[in-house]
Amino acid sequence: MRWRIFAREPAAIFWTYGFPLALALALGIAFRNRPPEPVEVAVQASPGAEGWRDALAKSPSMHVRWLNAREAHEALRAGKVSLVVSAGQPRTYEYDPTRPESRMARALVDDALQRAEGRMDMIKVKDQLVTEPGSRYIDFLIPGLLGFNLMSSGLWGVGFVLVEMRVRKLIKRMTATPMSHTHFLLSFVLVRGLFLLGELPLLLAFAHWVFEVPIRGSLLLIVALSTLGSLVFAGMGLLVGSRAQNTQTVAGLVNLVSLPMAICSGVFFSAARFPEVVQPLIKVLPLTALIEGVRAVMLDGAGPAAVAQQVTIMLVWGAVSFGVALRLFRWQ
Amino acid sequence: MDKPPAICCRRLVKDYGAVRAVDGLDLQVQAGECFGLLGPNGAGKTTTVEILEGLLPATSGEVELLGRTWQSDADWLRQRLGISLQETNLSDKLTVEETLRLFRSFYANGPEVQSLLELVSLTDKRQTWYSKLSGGQKQRLAVACALVGDPEVLFLDEPTSGLDPQSRRQLWGLIERFKGEGRTVLLTTHYMDEAQRLCDRVAVIDKGKVIASGTPRELIQSLGGTDVVEFTCDGLVEETRMSALPGVHAVKRRSDGLSLTVEQLHKTLPLLLNHLQQTGHTLSRLSTHHATLEDVFVNLTGRQLRD
After folding, report:
1. Could you name the CATH architecture of A39-116?
2. Residue in A2, A169, A172 nearest the CB of B106
3. What percent of chain B shows pLDDT beyond 90?
4. For domain B7-215, is the CATH number 3.50.50.60?
5. Is the entire prediction scored with pTM above 0.80?
6. DSSP label at A160?
7. B 240-299 residues inside an 8 A Cβ radius of A
Protein backbone atom coordinates (compact mmCIF):
# COMPACT_ATOMS: atom_id res chain seq x y z
CA MET A 1 0.00 0.00 0.00
CA ARG A 2 1.74 3.08 -1.23
CA TRP A 3 -0.36 5.56 0.61
CA ARG A 4 -0.09 3.86 3.99
CA ILE A 5 2.69 6.11 5.19
CA PHE A 6 0.74 9.26 4.55
CA ALA A 7 -1.32 8.37 7.59
CA ARG A 8 1.50 9.96 9.56
CA GLU A 9 0.45 13.34 8.30
CA PRO A 10 1.19 15.99 10.86
CA ALA A 11 -2.39 16.37 11.92
CA ALA A 12 -3.26 18.74 14.68
CA ILE A 13 -5.07 16.20 16.77
CA PHE A 14 -6.77 18.85 18.85
CA TRP A 15 -8.50 20.49 15.93
CA THR A 16 -9.82 17.20 14.75
CA TYR A 17 -10.82 15.62 18.02
CA GLY A 18 -10.75 18.10 20.85
CA PHE A 19 -12.24 21.17 19.21
CA PRO A 20 -15.67 19.83 18.24
CA LEU A 21 -16.08 18.36 21.71
CA ALA A 22 -15.18 21.65 23.35
CA LEU A 23 -17.57 23.47 21.02
CA ALA A 24 -20.38 21.02 21.72
CA LEU A 25 -19.81 21.36 25.45
CA ALA A 26 -19.72 25.16 25.38
CA LEU A 27 -22.82 25.52 23.20
CA GLY A 28 -24.61 22.77 25.05
CA ILE A 29 -24.12 24.60 28.31
CA ALA A 30 -24.96 28.01 26.88
CA PHE A 31 -28.23 26.75 25.42
CA ARG A 32 -29.02 24.17 28.07
CA ASN A 33 -32.62 23.83 29.11
CA ARG A 34 -32.92 25.88 32.27
CA PRO A 35 -35.80 25.80 34.72
CA PRO A 36 -37.87 28.91 33.92
CA GLU A 37 -36.25 31.86 35.62
CA PRO A 38 -38.37 34.26 37.68
CA VAL A 39 -39.23 37.56 36.03
CA GLU A 40 -37.69 40.65 37.66
CA VAL A 41 -40.27 43.33 38.43
CA ALA A 42 -40.26 46.43 40.62
CA VAL A 43 -43.01 48.07 42.62
CA GLN A 44 -42.56 51.80 43.06
CA ALA A 45 -42.49 52.56 46.79
CA SER A 46 -45.57 54.53 47.77
CA PRO A 47 -48.23 54.26 50.45
CA GLY A 48 -50.84 51.68 49.48
CA ALA A 49 -48.53 49.80 47.13
CA GLU A 50 -47.42 47.31 49.82
CA GLY A 51 -50.42 45.11 49.03
CA TRP A 52 -49.33 44.72 45.44
CA ARG A 53 -45.82 43.91 46.52
CA ASP A 54 -47.00 41.17 48.83
CA ALA A 55 -49.38 39.75 46.25
CA LEU A 56 -46.63 39.56 43.60
CA ALA A 57 -44.09 38.11 46.04
CA LYS A 58 -46.35 35.06 46.52
CA SER A 59 -45.88 34.03 42.88
CA PRO A 60 -42.84 31.76 42.30
CA SER A 61 -42.46 33.06 38.75
CA MET A 62 -41.70 36.62 39.82
CA HIS A 63 -39.02 38.34 41.83
CA VAL A 64 -40.21 41.63 43.26
CA ARG A 65 -38.17 44.67 44.30
CA TRP A 66 -39.36 47.61 46.34
CA LEU A 67 -37.73 50.74 44.87
CA ASN A 68 -38.29 54.46 44.98
CA ALA A 69 -39.29 56.24 41.80
CA ARG A 70 -35.79 57.16 40.66
CA GLU A 71 -34.28 53.74 41.42
CA ALA A 72 -37.17 52.02 39.68
CA HIS A 73 -36.62 53.99 36.48
CA GLU A 74 -32.89 53.34 36.56
CA ALA A 75 -33.47 49.63 37.03
CA LEU A 76 -35.98 49.52 34.16
CA ARG A 77 -33.64 51.39 31.84
CA ALA A 78 -30.67 49.16 32.71
CA GLY A 79 -32.75 46.03 32.15
CA LYS A 80 -32.40 44.90 35.77
CA VAL A 81 -36.19 44.76 36.00
CA SER A 82 -38.59 44.11 33.16
CA LEU A 83 -41.51 46.12 34.45
CA VAL A 84 -42.33 48.76 37.07
CA VAL A 85 -45.69 48.91 38.81
CA SER A 86 -46.51 52.40 40.02
CA ALA A 87 -49.43 53.75 41.96
CA GLY A 88 -51.92 56.12 40.39
CA GLN A 89 -55.38 56.23 39.03
CA PRO A 90 -55.45 53.89 37.24
CA ARG A 91 -52.54 51.63 38.28
CA THR A 92 -49.69 51.98 35.77
CA TYR A 93 -47.36 49.34 34.26
CA GLU A 94 -44.20 50.83 32.81
CA TYR A 95 -42.32 48.54 30.38
CA ASP A 96 -40.67 48.34 26.99
CA PRO A 97 -42.94 46.37 24.62
CA THR A 98 -40.01 45.46 22.32
CA ARG A 99 -38.53 43.27 25.06
CA PRO A 100 -40.21 39.85 25.13
CA GLU A 101 -39.50 39.41 28.84
CA SER A 102 -41.24 42.73 29.54
CA ARG A 103 -44.35 41.65 27.71
CA MET A 104 -44.25 38.41 29.66
CA ALA A 105 -43.89 40.36 32.91
CA ARG A 106 -46.91 42.48 31.92
CA ALA A 107 -49.04 39.37 31.55
CA LEU A 108 -47.80 37.71 34.75
CA VAL A 109 -48.05 40.84 36.91
CA ASP A 110 -51.49 41.77 35.69
CA ASP A 111 -52.71 38.21 36.13
CA ALA A 112 -51.36 37.95 39.68
CA LEU A 113 -52.73 41.34 40.78
CA GLN A 114 -56.15 40.85 39.21
CA ARG A 115 -56.44 37.42 40.87
CA ALA A 116 -55.42 38.88 44.21
CA GLU A 117 -58.16 41.45 43.71
CA GLY A 118 -60.71 38.71 43.23
CA ARG A 119 -60.89 37.90 39.48
CA MET A 120 -61.98 34.35 38.70
CA ASP A 121 -61.08 32.19 35.67
CA MET A 122 -63.97 31.66 33.27
CA ILE A 123 -62.83 28.16 32.22
CA LYS A 124 -60.61 25.63 33.97
CA VAL A 125 -57.43 24.68 32.08
CA LYS A 126 -54.63 22.18 32.75
CA ASP A 127 -50.89 22.60 31.99
CA GLN A 128 -48.88 19.64 30.69
CA LEU A 129 -45.13 20.30 30.69
CA VAL A 130 -42.99 18.65 27.96
CA THR A 131 -39.15 18.73 27.84
CA GLU A 132 -37.72 15.64 26.19
CA PRO A 133 -34.42 14.63 24.56
CA GLY A 134 -34.59 14.87 20.79
CA SER A 135 -36.22 18.26 20.55
CA ARG A 136 -33.66 20.36 22.42
CA TYR A 137 -31.06 22.67 20.87
CA ILE A 138 -28.17 20.34 21.68
CA ASP A 139 -29.90 17.53 19.76
CA PHE A 140 -30.13 19.79 16.76
CA LEU A 141 -26.56 20.97 17.22
CA ILE A 142 -24.66 17.66 17.39
CA PRO A 143 -25.35 16.53 13.78
CA GLY A 144 -24.55 20.07 12.64
CA LEU A 145 -21.23 20.06 14.47
CA LEU A 146 -20.41 16.65 13.08
CA GLY A 147 -20.98 17.88 9.53
CA PHE A 148 -19.16 21.13 10.14
CA ASN A 149 -16.19 19.27 11.54
CA LEU A 150 -16.03 16.87 8.61
CA MET A 151 -16.10 19.81 6.23
CA SER A 152 -13.34 21.76 7.98
CA SER A 153 -11.05 18.81 8.45
CA GLY A 154 -11.58 17.74 4.85
CA LEU A 155 -10.95 21.14 3.31
CA TRP A 156 -8.13 22.21 5.61
CA GLY A 157 -6.58 18.82 6.15
CA VAL A 158 -6.38 18.02 2.46
CA GLY A 159 -6.29 21.40 0.72
CA PHE A 160 -3.88 23.09 3.06
CA VAL A 161 -1.52 20.14 3.41
CA LEU A 162 -1.35 19.71 -0.36
CA VAL A 163 -0.43 23.34 -0.93
CA GLU A 164 2.13 23.18 1.82
CA MET A 165 3.67 20.19 0.10
CA ARG A 166 3.66 22.13 -3.16
CA VAL A 167 5.36 25.12 -1.56
CA ARG A 168 8.02 22.83 -0.12
CA LYS A 169 8.47 21.33 -3.60
CA LEU A 170 7.67 17.96 -2.13
CA ILE A 171 5.01 17.36 -4.77
CA LYS A 172 7.60 18.05 -7.45
CA ARG A 173 9.95 15.59 -5.79
CA MET A 174 7.17 13.00 -5.65
CA THR A 175 6.37 13.39 -9.33
CA ALA A 176 10.04 12.73 -10.09
CA THR A 177 9.41 9.16 -8.94
CA PRO A 178 7.28 6.54 -10.67
CA MET A 179 4.52 7.15 -8.08
CA SER A 180 1.03 7.09 -9.56
CA HIS A 181 -0.73 10.45 -9.43
CA THR A 182 -4.09 8.91 -8.74
CA HIS A 183 -2.70 6.94 -5.80
CA PHE A 184 -1.16 10.07 -4.40
CA LEU A 185 -4.42 12.01 -4.43
CA LEU A 186 -6.45 9.02 -3.34
CA SER A 187 -4.21 8.58 -0.32
CA PHE A 188 -5.33 11.94 1.03
CA VAL A 189 -8.98 11.08 0.64
CA LEU A 190 -8.61 7.66 2.24
CA VAL A 191 -6.57 8.96 5.15
CA ARG A 192 -9.41 11.42 5.84
CA GLY A 193 -11.79 8.49 5.93
CA LEU A 194 -9.53 6.76 8.47
CA PHE A 195 -9.37 9.81 10.70
CA LEU A 196 -13.14 9.90 10.71
CA LEU A 197 -13.28 6.52 12.38
CA GLY A 198 -11.66 8.09 15.41
CA GLU A 199 -13.57 11.34 15.26
CA LEU A 200 -17.11 10.09 14.86
CA PRO A 201 -17.40 7.68 17.82
CA LEU A 202 -15.82 10.27 20.08
CA LEU A 203 -18.33 12.99 19.26
CA LEU A 204 -21.31 10.62 19.28
CA ALA A 205 -20.31 9.00 22.56
CA PHE A 206 -19.73 12.39 24.12
CA ALA A 207 -23.10 13.69 22.94
CA HIS A 208 -24.79 10.55 24.16
CA TRP A 209 -23.26 10.36 27.65
CA VAL A 210 -23.03 14.03 28.50
CA PHE A 211 -26.17 15.44 26.88
CA GLU A 212 -28.18 12.24 26.39
CA VAL A 213 -28.64 13.03 22.72
CA PRO A 214 -30.72 10.18 21.32
CA ILE A 215 -29.63 8.04 18.38
CA ARG A 216 -32.94 6.83 17.02
CA GLY A 217 -31.88 5.47 13.62
CA SER A 218 -29.26 2.94 12.62
CA LEU A 219 -25.79 3.69 13.89
CA LEU A 220 -24.39 1.98 10.82
CA LEU A 221 -26.26 4.39 8.57
CA ILE A 222 -24.82 7.36 10.49
CA VAL A 223 -21.32 5.94 10.06
CA ALA A 224 -21.98 5.37 6.37
CA LEU A 225 -23.28 8.91 5.84
CA SER A 226 -20.36 10.43 7.75
CA THR A 227 -17.84 8.37 5.82
CA LEU A 228 -19.36 9.49 2.57
CA GLY A 229 -19.36 13.07 3.86
CA SER A 230 -15.72 12.96 4.83
CA LEU A 231 -14.74 11.51 1.45
CA VAL A 232 -16.73 14.22 -0.32
CA PHE A 233 -15.05 16.99 1.64
CA ALA A 234 -11.63 15.44 1.16
CA GLY A 235 -12.37 15.47 -2.56
CA MET A 236 -13.32 19.13 -2.33
CA GLY A 237 -10.11 19.69 -0.35
CA LEU A 238 -8.18 18.25 -3.29
CA LEU A 239 -9.98 20.59 -5.63
CA VAL A 240 -9.29 23.59 -3.42
CA GLY A 241 -5.63 22.61 -3.19
CA SER A 242 -5.22 21.63 -6.81
CA ARG A 243 -3.91 24.93 -8.21
CA ALA A 244 -2.97 27.25 -5.35
CA GLN A 245 0.71 28.18 -5.26
CA ASN A 246 0.88 29.42 -1.68
CA THR A 247 -0.82 28.86 1.61
CA GLN A 248 -2.48 32.29 1.75
CA THR A 249 -4.37 31.58 -1.45
CA VAL A 250 -5.54 28.22 -0.27
CA ALA A 251 -6.62 29.62 3.10
CA GLY A 252 -8.74 32.18 1.26
CA LEU A 253 -10.21 29.50 -0.98
CA VAL A 254 -11.06 27.25 1.93
CA ASN A 255 -12.86 30.10 3.67
CA LEU A 256 -14.64 30.98 0.46
CA VAL A 257 -15.96 27.45 0.19
CA SER A 258 -16.62 26.69 3.82
CA LEU A 259 -18.03 29.93 5.21
CA PRO A 260 -21.19 30.08 3.10
CA MET A 261 -21.86 26.46 3.91
CA ALA A 262 -21.22 26.94 7.60
CA ILE A 263 -23.81 29.70 7.61
CA CYS A 264 -26.40 28.37 5.18
CA SER A 265 -26.33 24.65 5.70
CA GLY A 266 -27.92 24.57 9.12
CA VAL A 267 -24.99 23.90 11.43
CA PHE A 268 -26.03 26.19 14.27
CA PHE A 269 -29.58 27.09 13.27
CA SER A 270 -32.10 25.68 10.87
CA ALA A 271 -31.50 26.35 7.16
CA ALA A 272 -35.27 26.84 6.88
CA ARG A 273 -34.80 30.39 8.21
CA PHE A 274 -33.45 31.51 4.86
CA PRO A 275 -35.90 32.86 2.26
CA GLU A 276 -37.86 30.42 0.14
CA VAL A 277 -36.10 31.40 -3.12
CA VAL A 278 -32.65 30.26 -2.00
CA GLN A 279 -33.87 27.01 -0.45
CA PRO A 280 -33.25 24.86 -3.58
CA LEU A 281 -29.71 26.24 -3.68
CA ILE A 282 -29.09 25.49 -0.02
CA LYS A 283 -30.51 22.00 -0.43
CA VAL A 284 -27.87 20.97 -2.98
CA LEU A 285 -24.90 22.10 -0.88
CA PRO A 286 -22.96 19.05 0.25
CA LEU A 287 -22.92 20.18 3.87
CA THR A 288 -26.70 20.64 3.90
CA ALA A 289 -27.13 17.16 2.48
CA LEU A 290 -24.80 15.64 5.04
CA ILE A 291 -26.30 17.41 8.05
CA GLU A 292 -29.89 16.82 6.96
CA GLY A 293 -29.14 13.16 6.41
CA VAL A 294 -27.45 12.65 9.77
CA ARG A 295 -30.14 14.65 11.58
CA ALA A 296 -32.90 12.62 9.98
CA VAL A 297 -31.28 9.34 10.96
CA MET A 298 -30.25 10.42 14.45
CA LEU A 299 -33.32 12.32 15.57
CA ASP A 300 -36.15 10.93 13.46
CA GLY A 301 -34.85 7.40 12.97
CA ALA A 302 -34.93 7.69 9.17
CA GLY A 303 -33.96 4.65 7.10
CA PRO A 304 -31.68 4.48 4.04
CA ALA A 305 -34.50 5.20 1.61
CA ALA A 306 -35.36 8.45 3.36
CA VAL A 307 -31.85 9.86 2.90
CA ALA A 308 -31.35 8.67 -0.69
CA GLN A 309 -31.61 12.21 -2.02
CA GLN A 310 -28.91 13.47 0.33
CA VAL A 311 -26.66 10.54 -0.54
CA THR A 312 -27.08 11.27 -4.25
CA ILE A 313 -26.18 14.93 -3.77
CA MET A 314 -23.01 13.99 -1.88
CA LEU A 315 -21.99 11.32 -4.39
CA VAL A 316 -22.24 13.83 -7.21
CA TRP A 317 -20.17 16.41 -5.33
CA GLY A 318 -17.55 13.82 -4.40
CA ALA A 319 -17.15 12.36 -7.87
CA VAL A 320 -17.07 15.74 -9.60
CA SER A 321 -14.55 17.23 -7.13
CA PHE A 322 -12.18 14.30 -7.36
CA GLY A 323 -12.42 14.10 -11.13
CA VAL A 324 -11.89 17.81 -11.66
CA ALA A 325 -9.07 17.93 -9.10
CA LEU A 326 -7.24 15.11 -10.88
CA ARG A 327 -7.59 17.02 -14.14
CA LEU A 328 -6.62 20.44 -12.80
CA PHE A 329 -3.92 19.44 -10.37
CA ARG A 330 -0.67 21.43 -10.64
CA TRP A 331 2.06 18.86 -10.26
CA GLN A 332 5.02 21.11 -10.99
CA MET B 1 25.21 -2.02 -31.59
CA ASP B 2 26.39 0.97 -29.64
CA LYS B 3 24.62 1.83 -26.45
CA PRO B 4 22.55 4.97 -26.90
CA PRO B 5 23.83 8.00 -25.02
CA ALA B 6 22.46 8.13 -21.49
CA ILE B 7 21.36 11.73 -21.94
CA CYS B 8 20.97 13.60 -25.15
CA CYS B 9 19.28 16.88 -25.96
CA ARG B 10 19.28 18.97 -29.12
CA ARG B 11 18.41 22.63 -29.64
CA LEU B 12 16.66 22.78 -26.30
CA VAL B 13 14.74 26.03 -25.72
CA LYS B 14 12.70 27.09 -22.72
CA ASP B 15 10.90 30.43 -22.49
CA TYR B 16 9.34 31.87 -19.39
CA GLY B 17 7.17 34.58 -20.86
CA ALA B 18 9.55 36.96 -22.55
CA VAL B 19 12.60 35.52 -20.83
CA ARG B 20 14.54 32.82 -22.63
CA ALA B 21 16.00 30.66 -19.85
CA VAL B 22 17.46 27.99 -22.11
CA ASP B 23 18.57 29.07 -25.54
CA GLY B 24 19.26 26.27 -27.99
CA LEU B 25 21.22 23.96 -25.76
CA ASP B 26 22.87 20.73 -26.97
CA LEU B 27 24.22 18.06 -24.67
CA GLN B 28 25.33 14.48 -25.00
CA VAL B 29 26.28 12.38 -22.01
CA GLN B 30 27.58 8.83 -22.54
CA ALA B 31 26.55 5.97 -20.32
CA GLY B 32 28.93 5.65 -17.38
CA GLU B 33 30.04 9.26 -17.55
CA CYS B 34 29.94 11.80 -14.77
CA PHE B 35 28.96 15.01 -16.52
CA GLY B 36 28.97 18.42 -14.91
CA LEU B 37 26.87 21.44 -15.84
CA LEU B 38 28.66 24.54 -14.60
CA GLY B 39 27.60 28.08 -14.56
CA PRO B 40 26.58 30.97 -12.37
CA ASN B 41 23.19 31.21 -10.69
CA GLY B 42 20.50 31.95 -13.24
CA ALA B 43 22.46 30.49 -16.14
CA GLY B 44 19.68 27.98 -16.88
CA LYS B 45 21.24 24.92 -15.27
CA THR B 46 18.27 23.97 -13.14
CA THR B 47 15.78 24.64 -15.93
CA THR B 48 17.81 22.43 -18.26
CA VAL B 49 18.04 19.65 -15.72
CA GLU B 50 14.34 19.78 -14.92
CA ILE B 51 13.49 19.49 -18.59
CA LEU B 52 15.79 16.49 -18.88
CA GLU B 53 14.14 15.02 -15.79
CA GLY B 54 10.74 15.34 -17.42
CA LEU B 55 9.50 17.78 -14.78
CA LEU B 56 9.22 20.77 -17.10
CA PRO B 57 8.03 20.81 -20.68
CA ALA B 58 10.52 22.31 -23.13
CA THR B 59 9.38 25.13 -25.40
CA SER B 60 11.13 23.36 -28.25
CA GLY B 61 13.94 20.89 -28.86
CA GLU B 62 14.41 17.17 -28.38
CA VAL B 63 15.29 15.18 -25.29
CA GLU B 64 16.26 11.52 -25.22
CA LEU B 65 17.27 9.53 -22.17
CA LEU B 66 18.65 6.00 -22.55
CA GLY B 67 17.39 6.20 -26.13
CA ARG B 68 13.77 6.94 -25.12
CA THR B 69 11.64 10.05 -24.86
CA TRP B 70 9.34 11.38 -22.15
CA GLN B 71 6.42 11.42 -24.56
CA SER B 72 6.52 7.71 -25.26
CA ASP B 73 8.14 6.06 -22.23
CA ALA B 74 7.62 8.23 -19.16
CA ASP B 75 6.89 5.35 -16.78
CA TRP B 76 9.81 3.30 -18.05
CA LEU B 77 12.14 6.27 -17.60
CA ARG B 78 10.83 7.17 -14.12
CA GLN B 79 11.83 3.71 -12.91
CA ARG B 80 15.39 4.21 -14.17
CA LEU B 81 16.20 7.74 -13.07
CA GLY B 82 17.30 8.95 -9.69
CA ILE B 83 16.66 12.60 -8.99
CA SER B 84 17.77 15.02 -6.34
CA LEU B 85 16.24 18.47 -6.76
CA GLN B 86 17.99 21.70 -5.91
CA GLU B 87 15.86 22.26 -2.86
CA THR B 88 14.13 19.26 -1.47
CA ASN B 89 12.16 19.60 1.70
CA LEU B 90 11.00 16.15 2.60
CA SER B 91 8.22 15.61 5.12
CA ASP B 92 9.29 17.11 8.44
CA LYS B 93 7.59 14.55 10.58
CA LEU B 94 8.62 11.37 8.85
CA THR B 95 11.74 9.66 10.13
CA VAL B 96 14.72 8.97 7.91
CA GLU B 97 13.75 5.33 7.61
CA GLU B 98 10.09 6.08 6.86
CA THR B 99 11.06 8.56 4.17
CA LEU B 100 13.25 5.98 2.47
CA ARG B 101 10.60 3.27 2.78
CA LEU B 102 8.05 5.63 1.24
CA PHE B 103 10.28 6.40 -1.73
CA ARG B 104 11.34 2.79 -2.02
CA SER B 105 7.68 1.80 -2.36
CA PHE B 106 7.42 3.82 -5.59
CA TYR B 107 10.03 1.74 -7.43
CA ALA B 108 9.88 -1.79 -8.71
CA ASN B 109 13.55 -2.57 -8.02
CA GLY B 110 16.12 -1.19 -5.69
CA PRO B 111 18.38 -1.81 -2.72
CA GLU B 112 17.16 -2.54 0.78
CA VAL B 113 16.45 0.47 2.96
CA GLN B 114 18.97 -0.89 5.44
CA SER B 115 21.82 -0.88 2.93
CA LEU B 116 20.91 2.62 1.75
CA LEU B 117 21.07 3.89 5.30
CA GLU B 118 24.55 2.44 5.61
CA LEU B 119 25.58 3.85 2.25
CA VAL B 120 24.73 7.41 3.28
CA SER B 121 25.89 6.86 6.91
CA LEU B 122 22.52 7.61 8.42
CA THR B 123 21.98 4.29 10.17
CA ASP B 124 22.13 5.84 13.62
CA LYS B 125 19.66 8.56 12.54
CA ARG B 126 17.06 6.17 11.18
CA GLN B 127 14.48 7.04 13.82
CA THR B 128 15.13 10.79 13.64
CA TRP B 129 12.53 13.14 12.18
CA TYR B 130 13.59 14.86 8.98
CA SER B 131 13.14 18.28 10.59
CA LYS B 132 15.77 17.39 13.20
CA LEU B 133 18.54 16.54 10.69
CA SER B 134 21.48 18.82 9.91
CA GLY B 135 21.88 20.30 6.42
CA GLY B 136 24.43 17.67 5.42
CA GLN B 137 22.29 14.84 6.73
CA LYS B 138 19.23 16.17 4.89
CA GLN B 139 21.21 16.36 1.68
CA ARG B 140 22.54 12.82 2.12
CA LEU B 141 18.98 11.64 2.68
CA ALA B 142 17.91 13.46 -0.49
CA VAL B 143 20.65 11.63 -2.40
CA ALA B 144 19.61 8.35 -0.80
CA CYS B 145 16.06 9.03 -2.05
CA ALA B 146 17.53 9.48 -5.51
CA LEU B 147 19.36 6.15 -5.25
CA VAL B 148 16.40 4.24 -3.89
CA GLY B 149 15.27 2.90 -7.26
CA ASP B 150 18.70 1.61 -8.27
CA PRO B 151 18.84 4.19 -11.07
CA GLU B 152 20.84 3.96 -14.28
CA VAL B 153 21.05 7.74 -14.49
CA LEU B 154 21.42 10.01 -11.49
CA PHE B 155 20.57 13.72 -11.60
CA LEU B 156 21.99 15.86 -8.83
CA ASP B 157 21.13 19.54 -8.85
CA GLU B 158 23.65 21.43 -6.72
CA PRO B 159 24.01 18.60 -4.26
CA THR B 160 26.55 20.35 -2.05
CA SER B 161 25.23 23.89 -2.15
CA GLY B 162 25.45 25.48 1.27
CA LEU B 163 27.13 22.53 2.96
CA ASP B 164 30.18 22.60 5.21
CA PRO B 165 33.43 21.19 3.78
CA GLN B 166 33.16 17.90 5.62
CA SER B 167 29.61 17.23 4.43
CA ARG B 168 30.66 18.11 0.91
CA ARG B 169 33.49 15.60 1.01
CA GLN B 170 31.14 12.94 2.35
CA LEU B 171 28.76 13.54 -0.56
CA TRP B 172 31.61 13.49 -3.06
CA GLY B 173 32.57 10.08 -1.75
CA LEU B 174 29.02 8.89 -2.33
CA ILE B 175 28.93 10.17 -5.88
CA GLU B 176 32.32 8.63 -6.66
CA ARG B 177 31.10 5.26 -5.44
CA PHE B 178 28.03 5.45 -7.62
CA LYS B 179 30.14 6.48 -10.58
CA GLY B 180 32.50 3.63 -9.84
CA GLU B 181 29.64 1.21 -10.52
CA GLY B 182 29.60 2.37 -14.13
CA ARG B 183 26.44 4.46 -13.96
CA THR B 184 25.74 7.87 -15.37
CA VAL B 185 25.65 11.03 -13.29
CA LEU B 186 24.57 14.50 -14.36
CA LEU B 187 25.53 17.06 -11.81
CA THR B 188 25.07 20.80 -11.68
CA THR B 189 27.21 22.96 -9.51
CA HIS B 190 28.73 26.36 -9.26
CA TYR B 191 31.68 25.01 -7.35
CA MET B 192 34.48 24.55 -9.81
CA ASP B 193 36.55 22.43 -7.45
CA GLU B 194 33.64 20.03 -7.21
CA ALA B 195 33.36 19.72 -10.98
CA GLN B 196 37.11 19.35 -11.33
CA ARG B 197 37.21 16.53 -8.83
CA LEU B 198 34.09 14.56 -9.82
CA CYS B 199 33.39 15.12 -13.47
CA ASP B 200 34.76 13.29 -16.49
CA ARG B 201 33.41 16.02 -18.73
CA VAL B 202 31.83 19.38 -18.10
CA ALA B 203 29.83 21.94 -20.02
CA VAL B 204 30.01 25.57 -19.01
CA ILE B 205 26.63 27.24 -19.34
CA ASP B 206 25.94 30.94 -19.44
CA LYS B 207 22.71 32.68 -20.38
CA GLY B 208 21.09 29.42 -21.45
CA LYS B 209 23.85 28.34 -23.82
CA VAL B 210 26.81 25.99 -23.66
CA ILE B 211 29.82 28.25 -24.02
CA ALA B 212 32.47 25.55 -23.61
CA SER B 213 32.62 21.83 -23.04
CA GLY B 214 35.21 19.11 -22.65
CA THR B 215 37.14 17.42 -19.88
CA PRO B 216 38.18 19.74 -17.07
CA ARG B 217 41.78 19.35 -18.22
CA GLU B 218 40.97 20.28 -21.81
CA LEU B 219 39.10 23.36 -20.72
CA ILE B 220 41.92 24.50 -18.51
CA GLN B 221 44.42 23.86 -21.26
CA SER B 222 42.30 25.96 -23.59
CA LEU B 223 43.39 28.91 -21.50
CA GLY B 224 46.85 28.30 -22.98
CA GLY B 225 48.54 28.48 -19.63
CA THR B 226 48.44 26.44 -16.47
CA ASP B 227 48.93 29.21 -13.93
CA VAL B 228 47.30 32.54 -13.27
CA VAL B 229 49.15 35.58 -11.96
CA GLU B 230 47.12 38.44 -10.51
CA PHE B 231 48.61 41.70 -9.36
CA THR B 232 47.80 45.28 -8.45
CA CYS B 233 50.26 48.15 -8.70
CA ASP B 234 50.30 51.93 -8.82
CA GLY B 235 50.20 53.68 -12.18
CA LEU B 236 48.82 52.37 -15.42
CA VAL B 237 50.35 49.21 -16.83
CA GLU B 238 49.68 48.72 -20.52
CA GLU B 239 48.06 45.41 -21.42
CA THR B 240 49.97 45.13 -24.69
CA ARG B 241 53.28 45.32 -22.83
CA MET B 242 52.14 42.45 -20.62
CA SER B 243 51.10 40.19 -23.46
CA ALA B 244 54.46 40.83 -25.08
CA LEU B 245 56.20 39.16 -22.13
CA PRO B 246 57.42 35.63 -22.99
CA GLY B 247 55.11 32.86 -21.75
CA VAL B 248 52.05 35.07 -21.24
CA HIS B 249 48.98 33.72 -23.03
CA ALA B 250 46.25 36.05 -22.02
CA VAL B 251 45.83 39.33 -20.20
CA LYS B 252 42.59 40.41 -18.56
CA ARG B 253 41.91 43.68 -16.85
CA ARG B 254 40.04 43.22 -13.60
CA SER B 255 38.57 45.81 -11.31
CA ASP B 256 41.55 45.63 -8.98
CA GLY B 257 44.40 45.06 -11.41
CA LEU B 258 45.55 42.68 -14.08
CA SER B 259 45.28 38.94 -14.46
CA LEU B 260 47.76 37.02 -16.64
CA THR B 261 47.51 33.44 -17.77
CA VAL B 262 51.00 31.99 -18.04
CA GLU B 263 52.54 28.73 -19.14
CA GLN B 264 55.67 28.43 -17.06
CA LEU B 265 55.30 30.39 -13.90
CA HIS B 266 58.92 29.98 -12.79
CA LYS B 267 60.17 31.62 -15.98
CA THR B 268 57.57 34.32 -16.53
CA LEU B 269 57.27 35.62 -12.98
CA PRO B 270 60.86 36.99 -12.69
CA LEU B 271 60.46 38.67 -16.08
CA LEU B 272 57.25 40.32 -14.97
CA LEU B 273 58.74 41.62 -11.72
CA ASN B 274 61.77 42.94 -13.60
CA HIS B 275 59.62 44.73 -16.10
CA LEU B 276 57.49 46.40 -13.43
CA GLN B 277 60.60 47.54 -11.54
CA GLN B 278 62.22 48.98 -14.63
CA THR B 279 59.11 50.88 -15.60
CA GLY B 280 58.84 52.34 -12.12
CA HIS B 281 55.67 50.59 -10.85
CA THR B 282 55.31 49.52 -7.23
CA LEU B 283 53.37 46.35 -6.53
CA SER B 284 50.73 46.46 -3.85
CA ARG B 285 49.45 42.91 -4.38
CA LEU B 286 50.68 39.79 -6.15
CA SER B 287 49.22 36.29 -6.13
CA THR B 288 49.46 33.19 -8.26
CA HIS B 289 47.45 29.97 -8.47
CA HIS B 290 47.04 26.97 -10.73
CA ALA B 291 44.45 27.64 -13.39
CA THR B 292 40.99 26.24 -12.52
CA LEU B 293 37.65 25.97 -14.25
CA GLU B 294 36.83 29.22 -12.52
CA ASP B 295 39.50 30.90 -14.63
CA VAL B 296 38.02 29.27 -17.71
CA PHE B 297 34.70 30.84 -16.91
CA VAL B 298 36.21 34.24 -16.24
CA ASN B 299 38.16 33.98 -19.46
CA LEU B 300 35.06 33.09 -21.47
CA THR B 301 32.65 35.60 -20.03
CA GLY B 302 34.80 38.26 -18.42
CA ARG B 303 32.70 37.79 -15.29
CA GLN B 304 33.25 36.04 -12.00
CA LEU B 305 31.22 32.90 -11.43
CA ARG B 306 29.60 34.05 -8.27
CA ASP B 307 28.90 37.64 -9.24
Report:
1. 3-Layer(aba) Sandwich (3.40)
2. A2
3. 10
4. no
5. no
6. I
7. none
